[in-house]
Write a structure and sequence with these properties.
Layout: E1 4-6, E2 10-14, E3 20-24, E4 39-44, E5 57-62, E6 67-71, E7 86-92, E8 95-100, E9 105-109, E10 124-129, E11 133-138, E12 143-147, E13 162-167, E14 171-176, E15 181-185, E16 200-205, E17 209-214, E18 219-223
Antiparallel strand pairs: 1-2, 2-3, 4-5, 5-6, 7-8, 8-9, 10-11, 11-12, 13-14, 14-15, 16-17, 17-18
C-alpha cells in the first residue's frame, strides 16, 4: 500500500490518523484532500506535457475499499465514486486504474491510446500507469500491458516470476523473484539499462530514469541525469 505519492508538482502523504496531507500546485484542486478520512493508499496522477504542469489529479483508497478523487477531470479520470471492492490503485496521465478483490480491473479517463482497455484482465494483484500505457501484474507472476506501444513499452508477454512493476513515461520495469530487473521501451537515456542489477528489493520508474534499491540498502539508478536524479553516489544506504 502506497502511503506516499508524488505527481508532477504535488506531493501526497497519508498521516498517522489515516487522513491525507497534500502540498504543491493546487491549480485544479489536486491538493483538496483535507476532508478525506480512513485512507489506506494514495496515488498521484502525472502530466504528459510540460505545458500542462498544473493539470493533475489525486486518488485515495479508503479502508472500506471505495475510492476518492480530486483535481483535473477533463477526461473523467476522477469519476470513481461507483468503484467498490478495490484493493489497490494507480494514477496515470488523465486516467485512474483500480484493482478489485476478485482480480479484475476498472479504469476511467482518457481512452485514446487504449491505456484504459483493461476490462478483460483477470487475476491481477497490482497495476502501474505510465503516460500512455498501463501495466498489470498477475498473481502467477506474469505481466500484461495495454496502451501505446510506440517504444515497445508493452512488450512484456515473455516476463515471468515478477514481483513488482513500474511504468515510466514510455518504458516499463519489473522486479523478478531472483532480485534481478528487466526493462523494455524507450531507452534514449539508458533508462532500461538494468540488466546488470542484482539483489534488488524495490524499484521505481520516473519519466526517463529508473531506480532500484538493493538488499543492503544501496540505491542504483540509470537514465536521464540532467537534474542529477541519478547521482546517488553520496546517498548512502536506506535500509
Amino acid at each position: 500500500m502506497n502511503k506516499l505519492a508524488a505527481g508532477c508538482r504535488h506531493t501526497v502523504v497519508i498521516q498517522p490518523d489515516d487522513t491525507v496531507y497534500a502540498v504543491g500546485d493546487n491549480k485544479l484542486g489536486q491538493c483538496n484532500t483535507a476532508s478525506w478520512q480512513h485512507i489506506i493508499e494514495v496515488a498521484a496522477g502525472n502530466v504528459h506535457s510540460a505545458h500542462n504542469t498544473g493539470n493533475a489529479h489525486t486518488l485515495a483508497l479508503k479502508a472500506d475499499r471505495t475510492v476518492l478523487a480530486t483535481g483535473w477531470n477533463t477526461n473523467g479520470q476522477c469519476d470513481v465514486t461507483a468503484w467498490h471492492d478495490i484493493i489497490t490503485i494507480a494514477a496515470g496521465w488523465r486516467r485512474s486504474i483500480g484493482v478489485k478483490a476478485d482480480g479484475t480491473v476498472v479504469a476511467v479517463g482518457r481512452m485514446n491510446e487504449g491505456a484504459c482497455d483493461v476490462a478483460d484482465w483477470r487475476d491481477i494483484k497490482a497495476v502501474s500507469a505510465g503516460d500512455w500505457h498501463t501495466l498489470g501484474l498477475q498473481r502467477n507472476g506474469q505481466v500484461v500491458a495495454v496502451g501505446n506501444n510506440e517504444r515497445g513499452q508493452c512488450d512484456v508477454t515473455a516476463w515471468r516470476d515478477i514481483t513488482a512493476i513500474e511504468a515510466g513515461s514510455k518504458h516499463s520495469v519489473s522486479l523478478k523473484l531472483d532480485g534481478t530487473v528487466v526493462a523494455v521501451g524507450d531507452n534514449q537515456y539508458g533508462q532500461c539499462n538494468v540488466e546488470k542489477w542484482s539483489n534488488i528489493i524495490a524499484i521505481a520508474a520516473g519519466s526517463r530514469h529508473t531506480v532500484g534499491m538493493q538488499a543492503n540498502g544501496k540505491i542504483v539508478a540509470v537514465g536521464d541525469n540532467r537534474y542529477n536524479q541519478c547521482t546517488l553516489k553520496e546517498a548512502g544506504t536506506y535500509v
